Every structure is written in C-alpha cells, then in structure tokens.
Automatic annotation (TrEMBL):
Alphabetized CDD domains for the sequence: AdoMet_MTases (cd02440)
Residues forming coiled coils: none
Gene that specifies this protein: LOC101491327
The protein, known as: Uncharacterized protein LOC101491327
GO terms of biological process kind: methylation
Keyword Methyltransferase: yes
Organism: Cicer arietinum (Chickpea)
Keywords associated with the record: Methyltransferase, S-adenosyl-L-methionine, Transferase
Length: 364
C-alpha cells in the first residue's frame, strides 16, 4: 500500500462504461455473509434514490462545498502531502455523480427560472450531504469512506472505516498470478490463499482468473474486513470460489499444510514509528492493524515466509507486497538464509511507479 490517497485511479475509470461497471453482477440476498452480526454499509451509488430535493437547494449545497474545497488551497499538501483544492473539487464532482440519480454534466449549468420547482432524486438526503462533505474536509475522512467504495482493476469494491482502501499498486499481484496460472493448469485449478484480505480485493481479482475447480481462501484478523470482503465477494457472485475465514495469518489455514497452489498477501508493513507522520486520511482513518508492521515493518512479512514454506505444495507460487526496496532485500536475504531448501526462483519486482515493491517465488 502506498502512504497517500491522493493519486487514486478513480478518474480514469470514471470515463468509460462507468455506469455498467458499477452495477453489482449479483443481486442475491447478502444475509448469509459471515460474520452475519456485522452488516457492511451499502456504497452510496448502490442505494435507492429515495430522497427528492429542489435543484436550487442542491446547487446551494454544491456552491458551499466547492467554496470549502477551494479554500483549502495547498494547506493539506504542505502539512502532510494531503489533497489540494483541485483534487477535492474533482472528488466533489464524483460525489455528485454517486448521489444524484440520472446525473448529467449540465445539471447545474442549465439552471434557470424553473430551479425552484425542478426536483432531483438523490441517494442521500441534503442534510447528510452537508455532514459528509464536512467530514471529508474538516476530519480528512478519505473520499472512499465517504462514498463507500473504491475502484480497483475492473472492480468497484465496497469499503468502510475498519477496512483498508485497496491501492492501485496491489493490482500488480493479480497480474502476476494471472501470468503464473496461464502457464500452469495445475496451479489454475488449485487452492490459493489471500492472507489479510481487507476488502477482498486480491481474493476477488484472483478468484476471477482461476479456472474451474480453483478456489481462494481469503482471511483476515479483522471481523469488519471479513464482513466487507464477504459483501464484495457476494456482489461479484464468487461465493462458490472464495471462502472467507477470520483469524490470524496461518491459523485459518490449519489442515492445508503443503496443499496450497498459491499464497499472496499485502500485509501491514509500515514501521510503527512512521504511522504518526502519515497523511491524515491514512493515519487518522485507516485501521492501524492494516498499516503497522512493527518496529521495522517486517513482522508480518517474515511470518508469511514461514507460511509459504509450510503451506505451499511443490511448485506453488507466492507473492508478497512490501514497503519498498529495503524490505524486499531483507525479505529475500531472509529467505536465502533460512528457506533455501524450500523457496526458490526468488525475484523482486517493481510497482507501476518503478518502486521495488513485490517479492515473488516458488516452493521447491
Ligand atoms: C495492508 S492491508 C491489505 C488489505 C488488502 N489485502 C488490500 O491489499 O487492500 C493488511 C490487512 O492485513 C490484516 N491483518 C493484520 N494483522 C493480521 C493478522 N495477524 N492476521 C490476518 N490478517 C491481519 C488487516 O486487517 C488488513 O486487512
């Protein structure tokens, strides 16, 4: 995960077939999602447009929200590399697209004499709109938590506080798995694990590239994450392919020793002392359990090496995301010193920004 939330890929994805991409593929009841005592929030764009407001009142809110966003200037950039006004104004545009039914780009520009009569249907009432935008600006609540979703690969994943917002660089792991299974039918039909699944992003991405018979076990320590991941899995109709389990790292895999075709993880890897310096959207709002990797950030990563050794079958593949070059090197050194009899073909790979980000390899 990168440490900022300012460069997400919302805008590019918004431009093509957006409406269709955002519809759930599966509309079955979500009542069976484990754990059923936690009910994930429905993202705004999926809520029914049950509120009606005068166009002039919506315009008033929009003018206020735009003013507030513009007044930020580069204050957040200077304080912690947060969003500037132009990004906040773009978010405002996306926000309205999510909130207003049948939104069109000339919604406000066409306003005329009928403004006080014309009404628009919305998925959130006007009072909540004021409240949500205040949370975005005053509390620096991430935009994705405000609208309740994030675009990731060709997916629109539900997210809420308590669950990490999936980052674009993690998408590479799905490409890597895609590459591996395209050359190996046995791995394509095997059982994979996504440890620390969060919103279920990797599990869903991988679930969609596996062949018939291929399965993913997606686990997390956080019950909120498990509930949100289950919701996302169900939206993409992958309940038969992805099994959610709650528990710490290898514990939910008991009985699978030597049987996994693949193991992937984007674990918490930020050194503890760096958490306080993170951009407010991240440090104040995203779950610490998803970020904090211990003193040097390596706690979970080292544990996962043992996991790859123990859980993968011969020829099985693993891919781990790290904080960058130094952690990649340390991880590979650890594997070479301690796992040379079991882990092989180790490689360090870069993310989209050219930062050494991933360690991959195979079980001998
Ligand atoms: C960096 S987030 C990654 C989430 C998701 N895989 C993604 O890429 O968006 C790390 C995840 O690991 C989970 N986690 C932290 N400690 C864990 C543990 N001991 N066992 C299992 N999961 C854990 C967190 O709850 C969080 O969801």
């Amino acid at each position: 995960m990168k440490l900022s939330l300012t460069n997400h890929n919302f805008s590019t994805l918004l431009n093509f077939s957006f409406i269709n991409l955002r519809r759930p593929f599966c509309s079955s009841s979500l009542s069976l999602s484990p754990p059923n005592y936690l009910k994930p929030k429905v993202p705004i764009f999926l809520r029914p447009p049950i509120y009606s407001t005068k166009l002039s009142d919506l315009k008033k809110w929009h003018d206020w929200a735009k003013n507030v966003a513009s007044s930020i200037g580069s204050t957040f950039v200077k304080s912690d590399n947060g969003p500037d006004s132009s990004l906040l104004c773009r978010e405002l545009k996306w926000f309205i697209e999510d909130v207003v039914e049948n939104h069109h780009s000339s919604l406000f520009s066409q306003m005329g004499l009928d403004d006080d009569i014309e009404r628009v249907k919305m998925r959130v009432d006007l009072e909540e709109l004021y409240c949500l935008w205040k949370q975005r600006i005053e509390e620096r609540k991430p935009f994705q938590y405000i609208v309740g979703c994030e675009h990731w690969r060709d997916l629109v994943l539900s997210v809420e506080e308590g669950v990490l917002i999936p980052r674009p660089e993690t998408e590479v792991i799905v490409d890597l798995v895609c590459d591996v299974v395209s050359k190996n039918e046995d791995l394509k039909r095997g059982v994979w694990a996504d440890l620390g699944t969060g919103s279920g992003a990797l599990a869903i991405g991988i679930g969609r590239v596996l062949g018939n018979g291929g399965k993913v076990i997606a686990s997390d320590l956080s019950s909120v994450a498990v509930a949100v991941a289950a919701y996302n899995v169900e939206r993409y109709c992958l309940q038969d392919k992805i099994e959610l389990r709650e528990g710490s790292w290898l514990e939910p895999l008991k009985g699978m020793e030597g049987k996994l075709a693949g193991l992937v993880s984007n674990p918490p890897y930020i050194p503890s002392k760096e958490i306080s310096g993170l951009q407010a959207e991240v440090g104040k709002h995203e779950p610490r359990v998803a970020l904090d990797g211990g003193a040097d950030g390596m706690n979970a990563l080292l544990h996962l090496c043992d996991g790859a050794d123990l859980m993968l079958k011969s020829g099985g593949f693993f891919a781990f995301e790290t904080n960058g070059e130094q952690q990649c090197k340390e991880l590979v050194d650890y594997m070479k010193s301690n796992k040379s009899a079991s882990l092989c073909n180790l490689e360090i790979l870069a993310d989209f920004a050219g930062i050494q980000r991933f360690v991959i390899g195979f079980r001998l």
